[in-house]
Amino acid sequence: MGKHIKTISRPSLAKTVQGRGCGECQTSCQSACKTSCTVGNQACMKEDK
Amino acid sequence: MIHKFIFDDHRIVLDVNSGAVHLVDELTWHLLDDYPLLSPRDLVAKHSRCYPVSEVQEAVREIEELVREGLLFSPDPLNGHYEPACNEVVKALCLHLAHDCNLACRYCFAGQGHFGGPSGLMPLETGRQALDFLFAASGSRRHVEVDFFGGEPLLNFSVLQALVEYGRQRAAQLGKVIKFTVTTNALLLTPEVGRYLNENDLAVVLSLDGRQEIHDAMRIFPGGRGSYGRVLENISRFVSSRPGGEYYVRGTFTRHNLDFSRDVLHMADLGFEHISVEPVVAPYREEYALQPQDVPLICEEYEALTRQLLSRARKGQRINFFHFNIDLGGGPCLPKRLTGCGAGREYLAVSPEGKLYPCHQFVGRSEYCMGDVERGIVRPELVEEFRAAHVYNKDACRGCWARFYCSGGCHANAHAFHGNIFTPYEIACDLIKKRIECALYLKAALSSESA
Predict the structure, then answer these.
(1) Which of B28, B265, B339, B389 has the lowest CB atom count within 10 Å?
(2) Do B183 and A8 touch (CB under 8 A)?
């Protein structure tokens, strides 16, 4: 942890390109009349396994 | 690309392409503006006018280290180009069990449940055909989803029950997992219905707008009387009957309650943990519709809500406000983040007579009818249109810092306001960016306190 910068999270979206996009995750709906899923908070079914 | 913002003295930096989040000091905040433009030597020369040289050198080294690790100014992993998978399948359906409603909510996008057409209930056979279509169309996907929607779906409760039974049987035979959700105004949520929903593990979305005067101004019976009393009684009884069960109490805020944080907190004070309150989407001509000039006030309200949620979290009260949820360490993969809304390609809506539409909001727009449950999709060009509507193909999204969290917004809203699905609805853009900042701040603030 740096003195000037505190890193809260260090994911890598680049690593989620290969071998992903399997489509097993919950379907997203961005409509306000449903409880619209902000995509960023969805779970990855592969990670769950 | 980075996005940085200040929230209550916290200087927060999001590295857009990696998803990394940092808290930085004031010196680093200024250095980051110049880092892409100046050499390290010039950076130190410029900023040592205001800060000690050793401090500037130290901060520059920390920035360089994070750049090397791919956590600051990281490049776009796909370089702005994405070819959607051509093996996508339909894996979710929104079944409109009833184009009828026992309420006459003033802001209802569905025209009091009728969607511009005649009222009617979905026959069981149509529902079974819809499920058969889903199981066939989902191919090798294991997880499939069905949302019972309306109008008010509990007006067709016997068909709902029969479809759950049929869907579970077929899913088991096919080695699939089917998840059911019902979205209801709770008027028909009797103890017996609640028991059924619990015993059969249906996720439930329950409509309540917040304070009584807010709820009763919009969510009225056909005669004009407010529904708060009956709705709250039913929701409270039901929620207390399902410890651990999945539910959301969701409301809508309009121009008449821009102080909607009070509605969120009202619902929290009623004992509800999982809460969603969303902005109404309506044509600008409606007196309750949000207007562009309301955006600054709404953003301030999201900030006020954030402070309230933080304060309560510090006291141990857990409030799961849906729109501030964010998974910084994991979450969905980049392909998912690029495509966002599944409408028209992996998610379809089914009208009571069995017609297929890209989503529930397109139901009744004849130019977007994609087929029916007997024949399946007969207009593949519509699927292609929706498949192409990912963030790199939208001018407003391509350079937006929020693109991997928002994922391009609601296609139906875009179409309603701009006549095409590639131009997002601007108010929604402004609001989701604010919500993401609030969500990042909540994580950062709680993280720094626990460190």
Answers:
(1) B265
(2) no
H helix or E strand, kind and range, residue B110: none
Region A7-31: mean pLDDT is 79
CB B232 within 8 A of CB B270: yes
Q: Starting at the edge strand that comes first in sequence, how are the strands of the sheet with B10-15 ordered?
A: A5-9, B21-24, B10-15, B2-7
Query: Among B267, B276, B185, B263, which Cα is nearest to B222's?
Result: B185
Q: What angle do CA B92, B97, B103 make, to 5 degrees?
A: 120
Per the domain annotation, does B337 fall within a domain? Answer: no
C-alpha B367/C-alpha B379 separation (Å) is: 10
Nearest beta carbon to residue A39 from set B89, B322, B337: B337
Cβ neighbours around B82 below 10 Å, total: 16
| Helix%, strand%, coil% for chain B, nearest 5 | 45, 15, 40
> To which residue do tokens 């603030």 refer?
B445
In whole angstroms, give the CA distance from residue B407 to residue B162. 36
> In whole angstroms, what is the distance from residue B155 CA to residue B166 CA?
19
B44 falls within a domain: yes
Structure tokens at B48: 């040592």
DSSP B432: H
In angstroms, the CA A2 to CA B228 distance is 52
Closest residue in chain A to residue B254, using alpha carbons only: A32
| pLDDT tens-place string over residues B152-175 | 999 999 999 999 999 999 999 999
Would you call B147 helix, strand, or coil by DSSP?
strand
Cβ–Cβ contact A7 with B under 8 A = yes
Cβ contact, residue pair B70, A33, below 8 Å = no
Q: Give the relative orientation of helices B53-68 and B26-34 as an angle to the nearest 10 degrees.
A: 60
Is the residue at B231 inside a domain?
A: no
B29, exposed or middle or buried, with CB in 10 Å at 0-12, 13-18, 19+?
Answer: middle
Do A25 and B142 touch, CB atoms closer than 8 A? Answer: no
Q: For residues B218 and B421, what is the distance between their CA atoms, to the nearest angstrom?
A: 29
Domain with B38, as residue range(s), is: 2-75
User: Any CB–CB contact under 8 A between B410 and chain A?
Assistant: yes
What is the 3 state secondary structure string of B202-259? CEEEEECCCCHHHHHHHCECCCCCECHHHHHHHHHHHHHCCCCCCEEEEEEECHHHCC
pLDDT one-digit tens code per residue, B95-148: 999 999 999 999 987 776 777 777 799 999 999 999 999 999 999 999 999 999
Nearest by Cα to B354 from B375, B368, B382: B375
Please check the confidence at residue B194 and state whether its pLDDT lies above 70.
yes
Count of domains in chain B? Answer: 1
Using left for φ > 0, alpha for ψ between -120 and 50, and beta otherwise, residue B409 falls in left
Predicted TM-score (pTM) of this structure: 0.94
Please check whether residue B387 lies inside any domain of the structure: no
